[in-house]
Design brief:
The complex is a heterodimer of chains A (122) and B (110).
Chain A lengths: L2 E5 L3 E2 L5 E8 L8 E7 L6 E7 L7 E3 L7 E6 L4 E6 L8 E9 L4 E5 L3 E5 L2
Parallel strand pairs in A: 2-11
Antiparallel strand pairs in A: 1-3, 3-8, 4-5, 4-9, 5-6, 7-8, 9-10, 9-11
Chain B lengths: L8 E4 L5 E6 L11 E6 L6 E4 L13 E6 L2 E6 L8 E8 L5 E3 L3 E5 L1
Parallel strand pairs in B: 1-9
Antiparallel strand pairs in B: 2-6, 3-4, 3-7, 5-6, 7-8, 7-9
Classes of the chains: A mainly beta (122), B mainly beta (110).
């Protein structure tokens, strides 16, 4: 059974770069699906950040247009993990960040990580 | 891209049925049969309960059902149970490999 686990700093200073990693077990990220990030500010709704396709999708990335200028999603196949970088963060980027396994055809999230809270504060 | 529109709250008594709407545009909900629904209990990650408008993942009770008409999708929970009390989010493919979510609906079982 596939499992996803986020890791990274829980506190980031304004204007710096938020970096998170999602370790995947029980499935090789090379073998299919899309792999993505979704966030949820405290007490608010979900926001799609972006995704990266598998080897069969040529590792193609796509990003939420509202975040595209600040976001990079990349993969490390040797460690079977993928990462999120969000630069120039502000307090508005404070949220629980979830990593996800996504069925590309219809873009629904089949599996979620447990989520990790990232606070942007000096 | 704007978020899909959901009512902030819904409620029903045990055993009753409740329907939650999710309204978008012809570019998202109306343009694709790629609407999904997620259930989120407090402090937990969301859980997929409906995908591709009407399909249920294995293990999801058939009390949960989905439908769509035009630019509006709906989630119906029949035979309400106390454990159904949670937040529910819709999402839709929005073209160009992007996805948008609804603002969420808090379902209260009275």
């Amino acid at each position: 059974q596939v499992q996803l686990q986020e890791s990274g700093p829980g506190l980031v200073k304004p204007s710096e770069t938020l970096s998170l990693t999602c370790a995947v077990s029980g499935y090789s990220i090379r073998d299919g699906f899309y792999w993505g990030w979704i966030r949820q500010p405290p007490g608010k709704g979900l926001e799609w950040i972006g995704s990266v396709g598998s080897m069969y999708h040529n590792w193609a990335t796509s990003y939420n247009p509202s975040l595209k200028s600040r976001v990079t999603i990349s993969v490390d196949t040797s460690k079977n993990q993928f990462s999120l970088k969000l630069n120039s963060v502000t307090a508005a980027d404070t949220a629980v960040y979830y990593c996800a396994r996504i069925w590309g055809g219809s873009s629904h999230v089949e599996n979620w990580g447990q989520g990790t809270l990232v606070t942007v504060s000096s | 891209q704007s978020a899909l529109t959901q009512p902030p709250s819904a409620s029903g008594s045990p055993g009753q049925s409740v329907t939650i709407s999710c309204t978008g545009t012809s570019s998202d909900v109306g343009g694709h049969n790629y609407v999904s629904w997620y259930q989120q209990h407090p402090g937990k990650a969301p859980k997929l309960i409906i995908f591709e408008v009407t399909k249920r993942p294995s293990g999801v009770p058939d009390r949960f059902s989905g439908s769509k008409s035009g630019n509006t999708a709906s989630l119906t929970v029949s035979g309400l149970q106390a454990e159904d009390e949670a937040d529910y989010y819709c999402s839709s493919y929005a073209g160009n490999d992007n996805v948008i979510f609804g603002g969420g609906t808090t379902l209260t079982v009275l």
